[in-house]
Amino acid sequence: MNRSSRAFIALALAVVLAPTAFADEAAIRKNIGERIPQFPKIDEVSKTAIPGIFEFRIGSEVYYTDEQGNYLIAGQIVDTKTRVNLTEERVAKLTAVDFKTLPLKDALVWKQGTGERKLVVFADPNCGYCKKFERDLQAVKDVTVYTFLYPILGGDSPEKSKAIWCAKDNTKIWRDWMIKGTPIPETGAQCDTSALDRIQALGKRYRITAEGEAFLTANRPAIDALMARIGPAGADGSHGVPTPVVRAMENLRVALRLRLRSGPLDQAATETIAAVLDAAAQTVERS
C-alpha cells in the first residue's frame, strides 16, 4: 500500500468517525437537557476510559451517562488497578485555583502564628455558617486568612459589606462582627467599593452560590450527624465507608442538588426535607 492510499484511508476514517462522535454529544446534550430541565446547560461532553460511558460537565460538577443520554450516573469512577479515584482527580483539576492569580489586595487579611498556611474564604456578613467557621478558625495555628466579602444572601448584606470594607480597621470590624456579634459601626463613610464588584465577578467565575450555604445553615445538625461517623479517607476516596453507604450518600447529594435547582423551597418542602434528614440522622446514630 503506497503512502497516498494510506492517507486516503485515514482521511476516510476521519470523515466516518467524526460525525459519530458529534452525534453522541448532540444526543447527550439534547436528551439530558429535555429530560432533566432543572440542570443548567452542559458545558462539556467527553469520553471516559470506559467504553460507552461519557462524562458531561456542568461547571465543576461531573456526571456520567451513556452515548444517548438515556441514563444519568452520579457517583465516582475508581480505577481498580491503580486505586485512583478518577472522578475526584478530575474535579480537583476543574476546581484548582492558582493562588497567585487571586486578587488578594481585595481581601481582608489576618494572621495567626507564623501565618505559614494560606486560606481563602468567601463570606457574607449575614452567613450563619460563615460565622461558625470564623470562630472555628481561632483554633487553627500558623495560618493567614484572606476573606473576600461576598454579599449574596440578600437583605442588608451589601450595605454591611460596604460598611465593613470602608471602615478604618476593616479586618477588626469584620472579625468583631463575625465572632463576637459586635454591631458594625454606621459611620456613613464613603470609599471605593469597586473591590466588592471584582469579588462578585470572581465568585461567579468559580460558581460560588448562596443555595449551598442556606441549606447547610438550615439543616446543619442533621447533616453533621449523618457525616460524623465517616472515617479517614481511604485510597479509593470512599472514606472507609461501605459501598452501599457511599451509594446512598451520593443519591442524597444528587437528589438535594436537583431539588434545589428546580426552584426555591417553600415551607412545606423545607419541613419535609428536614424531617427526612432528621430521621436519617437518628437511624444512623442508633445503628
Please characterize this protein's 3D structure.
With 287 residues, the chain is an alpha+beta fold. The protein has three domains: 3-95, Disulphide bond isomerase, DsbC/G, N-terminal (Nuclear Transport Factor 2, Chain: A), CATH 3.10.450; 99-205, Glutaredoxin; 226-286, no CATH class. It is 49% helix and 14% strand. The protein contains ten helices and nine strands. It has helices spanning 3-35, 86-95, 128-136, 157-166, 170-180, 194-205, 210-218, 220-227, 243-261, 267-286, and strands at 44-47, 54-58, 61-65, 72-73, 78-79, 84-85, 108-112, 117-123, 143-149. Strands 1-2-3-4 form a four-stranded antiparallel beta sheet, with helices on both faces. Helix 8 (220-227) packs parallel to helix 10 (267-286). The protein is globular and about 60 Å long. The chain starts with a helix and ends with a helix.
Quick overview of this protein structure:
This protein is of the alpha+beta class. The chain has ten helices and nine strands.
Q: Into which percent range does the helicity of residues fall?
A: 40-55%
Q: Hey, roughly how much beta strand do the residues contain? A: 5-15%
Could you give me the name of the CATH homologous superfamily of the largest domain?
Answer: Glutaredoxin
State the low-pLDDT regions, or none.
7-22, 229-239
Shape: globular
Topology, element by element:
Blueprint: H1 3-35, E1 44-47, E2 54-58, E3 61-65, E4 72-73, E5 78-79, E6 84-85, H2 86-95, E7 108-112, E8 117-123, H3 128-136, E9 143-149, H4 157-166, H5 170-180, H6 194-205, H7 210-218, H8 220-227, H9 243-261, H10 267-286
Parallel strand pairs: 8-9
Antiparallel strand pairs: 1-2, 2-3, 3-4, 5-6, 7-9
Helix pairs in contact: 8-10
